[in-house]
Amino acid sequence: MPMSMKIANTTIAMLVLASVAAFGGGCRGDRSSSRPRQFIPDMDDSPKFKPQTKTPFFADGRAMRSPVQGTVAFGVLPDPAAKGREHYLKEDDAFFRGKGGDGAFLTTIPAGVTLDQAALERGQERFNVYCASCHGYDGLGKGTVGKQWSYGLPNFLDPKYWDLKVDAEKSRDGYIFHVIRNGVAAPDGSLLMPAYGYSVRPEDAWKIVAYIRSIQEASRGSLQDLPEAERQRLQQNRPKTPGAAPAAGGEK
After folding, report:
1. In degrees, to the nearest 5, what angle opens at C-alpha 52 toward C-alphas 51 and 54?
2. Quick one: CATH architecture of 113-225?
3. Beta bridge partners of 9
4. 3 state SS for the chain
């Protein structure tokens, strides 16, 4: 073999060995205080924005960006209440905001909300969890927390919360729904009542409204409004007061 070819082969072999040594040294097997070798730096040091931080990159200085209009929410499936696109985009102002096309609060619960015994029981259960501590189980505003409040809490039996002639806004179903979901703000912007929209879904908020209406309706009724069998059962189970006359239809 000519000497020139031997020199060329030796040079190539040395270059290959040098390359292997260089790449092998880039993946050190032992611990070292030296910085690692970076062959593709932009992948190692790719920029990112952390939540709630500032950045001069965007004109408003915010790293977090608002969702593009029409963005569909995700991450809550499986959701038995999901009804498709209109549910996630919340396009129905009546169901999701308690307002009609004119922007005013709805007088009554939307027709799309199923109101039956199961709905009232669900409304009662949610009311007892989120409302009763302040407003009381009877809605009089004398709950355990409500009695310690710095001001008197609303009494749901007050006509202004059910009679349009007394208060054209606060008596509406849509207003009560709005308060449950968004709270009540004072003139200075502070919250008189916290918002429960984070934990009370729209469908449950409407069921709470229905339950509150049942409390109000019951307070305006009388024993004679009940079926005969129910009247007798209540009269028989009514606590007896010493010396009191026996209840009609009860024990003599």
Report:
1. 110
2. Orthogonal Bundle (1.10)
3. none
4. CCHHHHHHHHHHHHHHHHHHHHHHHHCCCCCCCCCCCCCCHHHHCCCCCCCCCECCCCCCCECCCCCCCCCCCCCCCCCCCCCCHHHHHCCCHHHHHCECCCCCECCCCCCCCCCCHHHHHHHHHHHHHHCHHHHCCCCCCCCCCHHHCCCCCCCCCCHHHCCCCCCCCCCCHHHHHHHHHHCEECCCCCEEECCCCCCCCHHHHHHHHHHHHHHHHHHHCCHHHCCHHHHHHHHHHCCCCCCCCCCCCCCC
Q: What are phi and psi of 81, to 5 degrees?
A: -90, -5
CA gap 98, 8 in Å, rounded:
85
Measured distance between the N- and C-terminal CA atoms of the chain, rounded to whole angstroms? 132
Interval 219-239 mean pLDDT: 78
Distance CA 90, CA 88 (A): 5
Q: Where are the domains of the chain?
A: 113-225
Q: For the chain, what percent of residues have pLDDT higher than 90?
A: 41
Q: Which of 126-130, 160-164, 226-230, 246-250 has the lowest mean pLDDT?
A: 246-250
Quick one: angle between helices 173-182 and 202-220, nearest 10?
130
CA distances from residue 221 to 71, 124, 140, 225, 233 in whole angstroms, order as listed: 48, 19, 16, 6, 17
Write the pLDDT tens digit of every residue in 168-216.
999 999 999 999 999 998 888 777 899 999 999 999 999 999 999 999 9
Neighbours of 230 (CB within 10 A): 11
Higher pLDDT, 150 or 55: 55
